[in-house]
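Narrative progress, year one. The postdoctoral researcher (J.K.) led the effort to move from monomer predictions toward full complexes, under supervision of the PI. The following entry was the first complex the group processed end to end, covering 706 residues in total.
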Amino acid sequence: MNYDPLPEFRRCPATGRWVIFAPERARRPITLAHTEPHHRDRVNPGTVCPFCEGNEKLAADEVYSVRPDGSAKDSPGWELRVVPNKFPALRSNMASTLPALDPFFEIRPGIGNHEVVIPCRHHEPNPAKLTLDQYAALLVAYRERMLALASGRLWKYAQVFQNVGAEAGASLAHLHAQIIALPMVPDAIQSEMAFAEHVHDQRGNCVYCEMVAKELAGGSRIVRETERFVAFCPFAPRFSYEFWVMPKSHSAHYEFTGAAALRELAGLFLELLPALDAVLAEPAYNIFLHTSPLTPLGQKPAPMPHYHWHWELIPRTARAAGFEWGSGCFLNAVPPEKAAYELRQQLPALHGQ
Amino acid sequence: MNYDPLPEFRRCPATGRWVIFAPERARRPITLAHTEPHHRDRVNPGTVCPFCEGNEKLAADEVYSVRPDGSAKDSPGWELRVVPNKFPALRSNMASTLPALDPFFEIRPGIGNHEVVIPCRHHEPNPAKLTLDQYAALLVAYRERMLALASGRLWKYAQVFQNVGAEAGASLAHLHAQIIALPMVPDAIQSEMAFAEHVHDQRGNCVYCEMVAKELAGGSRIVRETERFVAFCPFAPRFSYEFWVMPKSHSAHYEFTGAAALRELAGLFLELLPALDAVLAEPAYNIFLHTSPLTPLGQKPAPMPHYHWHWELIPRTARAAGFEWGSGCFLNAVPPEKAAYELRQQLPALHGQ
């Protein structure tokens, strides 16, 4: 049988969920040893890392880099590189020609843009081991790529995420993040924005601003606070030791955050991640950004008084099973107050406390 | 620090999601070796199976059983047993006394009923190895327990599910299913029913009846059809080789299905599961039931012209990662037409074809 190898979006007629069919993903190399899911740096023997300095030719040509030494594109000497994913979930250059279909089965061309952000030239699998300069450059790279992706006007949303460890879905050990730009705002963001807008209509407030105020007032779920940011275990997390990081003042668009704030945020992550590694013995985890849809080039950002960008980090220590997938309701064995307490114990002491 | 060990429901103020805090789950025994996630029958050494015949005293007292030999309760001789989960996600006998809290952080007592259904007395980890009598008794046990749970009027929904393999969240190898009765209809069911009701308002049809008709007419995603049921890979599945099984005629309440139909359904599963084992080399998977809320004893079942019970089976061959958890949009490398074709190839030939 012959199946179209082009990626596509499909919408489930019974649930309304969008799914991406990405046949090329099945061909990507898996060098992380999946039989040892909790080992983040165990790699299958005989594989070469395409993200290490000196192996630039194994990856696609860079679209962004940090090269303080002025070295040439796609050569050694970089501090951070962004390259197109060689096994992309979606394609950016696909003609929109699809056969007419039964409208019951909604289908759209699988266009999108899938990039990999490599924040260190050495074979480091652990984000907690980045330097402050490296982590700050990573957070800036997300911003720069979101602004660049918005300029094409094709993309409505950029999903930034990082998979750490095979159990969290990473296929290569060398630390990397990914950005998938989409022609539509994905379901989870639409539903989160709709819920927040509903709250705003009812109470006139951003629910995330309310949450920051209440968490800071209560304190039991706070992990760490800096001048501009706060990290806390949310009141009803789906996963044990899950935490969120967000600006304390209202801010809807991550990509308009300034360099000083991003450096402060990088420093916060570099306190949080070693604490998480200490509490859970270097767990696998996912980090992802929730932010407003992209702003087309030349337009002013939408005001978005109801939405508030934030990072979510979910450790993958327990597996969602039949109950969770069936009911959508998550079972969590660790109260966030306990998780926050344990994480706080692993943080370096603050000056003056 | 002292944390309340009682289970509770909490609602996320930012997303509206309900989560269950189940501290007792952290104490349940894990005998399946999680370092070998794809081996369904590899157990940690030195453990005794509480579900094997002769070990009845290691599990809680049975609330339902099939004992053709008339043997005594909680003794050997059974064909199927249902016992309360010794490490329940929720408690059925908890006083509803919670401190008054900020209404921003919604909290409810963690009441519910968590049972385990053991469909064979021998240490069999693979549902595909059940006999037709055993599988039919399992499907009948779900029905009987749903009817019994409805009679207490406390429970609004019963989530039936089965985790096969450690990668799918199973902690004990001996084949077992679980039923969690809830005091509320869970988020995934509410949202599925709301979507189906919206379709019904617009087109006057049950969207599942429409889907059955269109899938049967098209044929490319059908895996197997029997007199009353059809199994197919849905148009937009989240997981590779995911399939759904549902009655061809409209039916909203699983627990009012007759014995002959359930026996036919059991026979269908016993064709599907070996085919899945053949295509994916005995994968880990979850099976769960989606059906209408429970009908209180003495009341007529709600008509529910828009909803339609069905089983979903999700193989756990790929892991949901940062993109999926962040965006809610799933990446799937295998088109359902290809999955259905491969599954069909592994089915026994039908008479007359």
